[in-house]
């Protein structure tokens, strides 16, 4: 059987492009390595937790147009994230405020015309010892929020993002999984051939035809191929191409992709309310530096977040060691012995995304080479192989569900413009 299009990966980008193409009458085959769809949207319902938890994507960062259009289309409910931002340094609590030199940093950044790495920018404008706290704050932010390596990340790319950092965020009630289910149902209603547990490791192509092989050595044939796997998978070299990629291979390696570990800890009580009953986020200098509650929802879940270089250092740490680190961090924040916190703990789940086989990291960030790489990856190889995914979308929302949606829509539009099989077959 020959398909019009094969799509690799049933994350948001793969599901979106499959939905668009199948609704337009294309005969699509969707191959997914995991046993379920969603990729980095990974809402888990597990015994021990009092409700569904987000081990991957959790927030909608502002009123993002594509995400909100889809929520409306699928009648999915959401709520605004609430609570204050608290800073805890050396165990001392205070309302979180930017470093005293933050506005100076943003002013300097607004005047910058030529892109450099975050590290070069800091070295040029803020190398005096008085700026050490600012440098640390910038690094914490880049690593924590963008999962970025500051010696590679572009300073201009974070400019707009960081200016809008204080905007409202939203959560999907019952989990992001609702959005995945909606996209999947749309694909199913178009009779898309969906094959789970199908991990692609070889692609043979020319300008008329592509054959894709899975690790079980099963072959699939189509006119066109869309690859939506993460940058981590692309960079790992686990997919072999015949003939080998040239310009696209260079572009793939110049993208930035950072590690992240997410800690989900459910306790018997929300003991943190005794400190402050309006905690949204806690930013600290502890080993697991960022924590958040589920406000406005009443919940006994605390979520921890460790991104960037410090997460990379923990690639080989097992669940027990990571849990111990998390409890030590909470112990310093809440002045409670780790043993007492362990007593309070009902259930936990820790996902170290750099070790997740079919993802190999968290999400992308912009390097100095990203703009050029996106241009290259946006043009199909031999008119046959297209790339899509959160890292390949143009615009400011890179690394998000919104950018995966955007990339899915853009790729479908591009393919449909260049290829109308109904007339050919
Ligand atoms: C911990 C974490 C928290 C996040 N938080 C947020 C957030 O709060 N808000 C937000 O907007 N974004 C967040 N993101 C980012 C967001 O989840 C991603 O940008 C988005 O889900 C990526 O979608 P995608 O389709 O591009 O890629 P993916 O979701 O990675 O989908 C790719 C799919 O390809 C499959 N695959 C991989 N290799 C193969 C192969 N060889 N053969 C077949 N299939 C393969 C994978 O299993 C996967 O299903 C977060 C990400 C992580 C990891």
Please describe what this structure looks like.
There is one protein chain. The protein has helices spanning 12-23, 65-73, 102-111, 118-125, 132-146, 155-163, 177-189, 231-236, 247-253, 309-312, 319-334, 338-344, 370-377, 401-418, 421-424, and strands at 2-8, 28-31, 43-44, 53-54, 59-61, 78-80, 84-89, 92-95, 169-172, 193-195, 200-205, 210-214, 219-227, 240-242, 256-258, 260-267, 279-284, 290-292, 301-307, 345-352, 363-365, 385-387. The protein has 425 residues and is α/β, with parallel strands linked by helices. It has two domains: 2-40 and 176-253 and 369-424, FAD/NAD(P)-binding domain (3-Layer(bba) Sandwich), CATH 3.50.50; 82-167 and 260-360, Polyamine Oxidase, Chain A, domain 2 (Alpha-Beta Complex), CATH 3.90.660. α1 links the parallel β1 and β2. The model has no long low-confidence stretch (mean pLDDT 95). It binds flavin-adenine dinucleotide (FAD). Flavin-adenine dinucleotide binds at residues 8-14, 31-34, 39-41, 56-59, 199-200, 228-230, 233, 239, 260, 262, 353, 358-359, 362-363, 389-390, 399-402, 404.
Give the helix/strand layout.
Layout: E1 2-8, H1 12-23, E2 28-31, E3 43-44, E4 53-54, E5 59-61, H2 65-73, E6 78-80, E7 84-89, E8 92-95, H3 102-111, H4 118-125, H5 132-146, H6 155-163, E9 169-172, H7 177-189, E10 193-195, E11 200-205, E12 210-214, E13 219-227, H8 231-236, E14 240-242, H9 247-253, E15 256-258, E16 260-267, E17 279-284, E18 290-292, E19 301-307, H10 309-312, H11 319-334, H12 338-344, E20 345-352, E21 363-365, H13 370-377, E22 385-387, H14 401-418, H15 421-424
Parallel strand pairs: 1-2, 1-13, 2-10, 7-17, 11-14, 13-22
Antiparallel strand pairs: 3-4, 5-9, 6-9, 7-8, 11-12, 12-13, 15-21, 16-19, 16-20, 17-18, 18-19
Helix pairs in contact: 1-7, 1-14, 9-13
């Amino acid at each position: 059987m020959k398909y019009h299009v094969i799509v690799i990966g049933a994350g948001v980008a793969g599901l979106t492009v499959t939905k668009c193409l199948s609704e337009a009458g294309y005969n699509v085959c969707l191959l997914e390595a995991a046993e379920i769809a969603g990729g980095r949207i990974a809402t888990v319902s597990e015994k021990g937790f009092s409700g569904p938890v987000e081990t991957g994507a959790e927030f909608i960062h502002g009123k993002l147009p594509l995400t909100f259009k889809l929520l409306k289309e699928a009648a999915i409910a959401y709520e605004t994230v609430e609570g204050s931002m608290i800073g805890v340094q050396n165990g001392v609590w205070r309302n979180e405020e930017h470093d005293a030199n933050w506005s100076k940093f943003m002013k300097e950044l607004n005047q910058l015309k030529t892109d450099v790495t975050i590290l070069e920018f800091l070295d040029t404008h803020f190398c005096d010892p008085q700026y050490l706290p600012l440098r640390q704050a910038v690094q914490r932010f880049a690593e924590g929020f963008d999962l970025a390596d500051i010696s590679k990340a572009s300073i201009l790319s974070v400019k707009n993002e960081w200016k809008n950092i204080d905007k409202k965020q939203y959560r999907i009630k019952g989990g992001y999984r609702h959005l995945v289910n909606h996209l999947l149902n749309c694909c199913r209603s178009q009779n898309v051939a969906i094959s789970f547990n199908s991990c692609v490791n070889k692609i043979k192509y020319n300008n008329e035809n592509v054959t894709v092989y899975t690790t079980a050595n099963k072959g699939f044939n189509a006119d066109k191929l869309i690859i939506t796997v993460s940058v981590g998978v692309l960079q790992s070299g686990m997919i072999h191409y015949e003939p080998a990629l040239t310009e696209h291979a260079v572009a793939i390696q110049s993208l930035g992709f950072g590690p992240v570990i997410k800690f989900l800890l459910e306790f018997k009580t929300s003991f943190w309310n005794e400190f402050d009953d309006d905690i949204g986020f806690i930013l600290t200098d502890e080993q697991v530096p960022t924590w958040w509650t589920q406000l406005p929802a009443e919940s006994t879940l605390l979520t921890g977040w460790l991104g960037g270089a410090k997460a990379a250092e923990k690639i080989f740490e097992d669940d027990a060691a990571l849990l111990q680190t998390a409890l030590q961090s909470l112990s310093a924040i809440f002045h409670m012995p780790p043993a007492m916190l362990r007593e309070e703990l009902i259930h936990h789940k820790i996902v170290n995304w750099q070790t997740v086989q079919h993802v190999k990291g968290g999400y992308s960030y912009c390097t100095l080479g990203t703009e050029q790489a996106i241009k290259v990856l946006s043009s199909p190889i031999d008119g046959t192989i297209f790339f899509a995914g959160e890292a390949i979308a143009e615009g400011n929302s890179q690394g998000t569900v919104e950018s995966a949606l955007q990339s899915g829509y853009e790729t479908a539009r591009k393919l449909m413009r260049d290829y109308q099989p109904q007339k050919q077959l």
